[in-house]
Amino acid sequence: MALIRAASLRLAVRRCGCASFSFLILSTIVLSTKPAVAQSSADIFAAIEDSVTEAVEKAERSVVAIARIPIAPEPLERQRARNQFGIHPDLGANDPLAPGYIPKNPGTGILMASPDNPRLRLILTNYHVVKGGQPFRNDGIIRSESRIAVRFSRTQAAWATIYAADPRSDLAVLAFDPSDIESAPADIPVIQISDDPRVRKGQFVISLGNPYAIARDGSPSVSLGMISNVSRFPFLDAPIDQETIHHFGTLLHIDTRLGPGASGGALLDRDGDLIGMTTSLAALEGYETSVGYAVPLNSSLRRIVDDLLRGYEIEYGFLGVVPGDPQDVEATLISVKRKTRGVPISQVVPESPAYRAGLRRNDIVLAVNGVPMFEKTDILREVGLLPPGSSGQLRIIQASSGRQSSMYVPLAKWPRRHVDRIIVSNDRYPIWRGLKVDWPTSRSRHFDYDRPYPRAIVVDRVEPGSPAEIAGLREGDLLTEAHGTDVETPQEFLKAVASANGAVQVRLIDGSREPLIRTIAPSR
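The structure assignment produced for this chain is given below.
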């Protein structure tokens, strides 16, 4: 009878919500003080315990340990000089793939399948875990400082390369050669992602990771906690060149301890499904190490993860405005005769998507896609998490009339800095006749907020000796027309030239280099 009761309780625990789970824990504590119901208390505790262990068993084989090993380590004499025992952490074994190897730069990763090839196994982790590692496609731009070792189990390990990396989301994906391990690619279990990754404060979570390289044998350590808050910020005073999308308030705050090495770990719900990825980036930037954070896998972040799994550069939405301080809202509403909360616009780029949609300086943005705006970072976050080419719905108060209205704004691409830190294995926009094009705002070096937004595409790269170079095109050129068709996006350009077999004429933007018309011959 007790077994039947325990089995029923296990089923109830899996099906119950967070409040019920909390009630079961509280009931266990209360009932354990009464001998007459001790057996019932034990059954409840066993059911909770079994539910957690089953969730861990479901996911732990999909969580791997990562080690970043410098290509040129310090001389052995120097290592021994600063270690009284004469042993350096990176010398726990001669072979970094050996089970006894103790890395100095540990991390965690999550095994996932490619969205376009379910048999292809890749590893999701944090960018800061593998920064400086060898890229999968080495075109000579990225300088490798380290090698990356991945351990799947006590007997299986492999070298890995960076398949795609995006510093702005602090996410990266690793590739490895499946022939280096015993299992066939399709036999390697991948994590199951929750169908409903929505999270709430107070929700119980399970984390699997590699804190302090404790999982160097391939067995991740488990921790149980709850979600303390959502939409949290890490340390806010990061230099602009180190600012991530998470500095605008995307992170989950969890009460799980995350020591160095826990970054890239799996955050699971009670069913053992993935709802986020743990990160110690925020703690390393100034918070106590007892405070844990995780990147949620909601629809916006899932888009980023899927594109990294495809090997693409990550694109972020761009509205063409500079948000002002919310404290200035009242001053802009003097003529409106009412108070409200929102974010004013201090600058609108001429001819930008926002300008063309009717947004003007001093207009107040109340909401983006239904999300209320309270701080300038709210606009940067909600717009940035949308892909270029999509539309954002803005609810605004027009400064000129004081009227409230809604508008849909097609977004451009956020200007990226430090593109040398971005790693890709596949081009989102295929190279055509040696010409790689992108959005005109794709790179900060090609775009100026004080100049009108160009209705054109930018030449991002020209391959040496290609028909595009022979035609006289060079990086930074702005093209307004291709094969007789006006083009303002990379998709429009590729569609215009897709069926061209002979020479194709492109037009540079007026006022740029002469001649404006260039002819690109077919590839040999």
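Interim note for the steering committee: The chain is about 20% helix and 25% strand. The first strand starts at residue 63 and ends at 70.
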